[in-house]
Amino acid sequence: MRRDQLCSNTTPKQCGDPRSGQHASFLDQQVRQVGQEPNPPIPGQPVTTYYEVSEALVTEGMWKAGMGDIKDNDDLYLHAIMVSIDGNGNVRKGPFYTLDEIKRAEPWAHPDDLDDYFGIHVPYRSAEFPVDVIAKTVNGKVIEQPQVTFLKGKYKVGETIDHEFPETIEDNGKTYTIVRSYLSPKQDPTRKDWLQENPETNPKVRMRSFTVHLGGTDAVAEYAENNPVKAIYQKEDGTRLKEVDKGVFATGEEANHTFEGQITSGGQTYEIIRSYVTNNNKPDEKLFVLEKGDPKLKERSILVGSGGSNFIGIYKIPSSVTVTSRIEAPETVDQIVTEVDGDFVFEVESLKNLKSYEITDIRNARLVQTGDKTGNLSGTSTSKTIPIKIPFTSGDKVSVQITVVVKDVDGNTGDSTSDHTVRKGDGDGKPLARRFPAGRSDGAKRFCCHSGGCARRRKI
After folding, report:
1. N or C end: fewer C-beta atoms under 10 angstroms in the chain?
2. What's the rounded Cα separation, in Å, for the pair 419 and 331?
3. Does residue 374 sit in helix, strand or coil?
């Protein structure tokens, strides 16, 4: 079977070899005779025979032959594959693929009668093929919802179909956003024809208009969990300097960002002093905190959490006095706790000898010793730990913020602000685990919580 005519209209008829170029062949049991006229045959009278090849075989054969672009009512030309048999039906010669070969195979009484078996024109009558709409995740999992994954209908090959994919899908408590769409022929589901991406600027990702493949089409849209990731550059007081959109990721997918050592905003230069990660579901919980001096401070890599994640870089104006600080306290306490013990810890590096420090701001906490609000310092580097108490009389969480300013002997200053959130747990009396910033060796400290607060113990 071919799509072009190889035979002439002359007498005698001349035909080329149908095996050259694009063609589909159907042999033996694939071709079934379904009738003849007249039946039984009348000697000396023409006989018309009817043969049938299943639609599935025809579709597969044409697809493999490269005829997948055929349309309904396109021309097809059939050529017989013939053998010569004896009176008992046994094959004597053949098979013969060309008109010339079969004519020369035997001393036929009427060889030109064989012309009718070659170059037979038939219009292609398309079957109705299935078109399925499929929504799946970028990891290949089909979203089994009848409104997004379904049989759209059955159509003839080449028929034009319009479909609009939804922008987002809610499934099992998660939100998914479309990232790409494409068309896969049923005969080769690995293909991704007419791929469309970048839905933010390309409306064709959602709005598809296509013609049906031979054998049918899967209209596929891939969705990613709606987990946005951003890199946020901010000052210690929370003022944002800039923001970088890293895209949308699946839960558990890796995301990376490299912070600059210095940035300029509003004509002012800032340098990075701290970085950490937050999850959008718990924005005030700081994870994997790294301080200035850590080799991984700028290069951050995470597995994205459900709801999305953020890389946070903390920047401050460079000074000859560098101060870093943190609040060490539990993240979770029992429901009946009314006061929490903790420490405010700051560390200083200076080019000149240090002179003094002052805690200029303290919110939702108090110093155990009021005299710790100010103090003298010496040397060019030091660290200081100041005990604090965090009242917890109402609500399910309390957020603490403390700022310290340090001076050197020449009057140069440096400052640092830290914050920390303590939440009340489920009150089940289970031991509470304290998580310390990544990269710090704080394993020697433990907190024990009771109705009166939290007391710090040290290993001996």
Report:
1. C
2. 12
3. strand
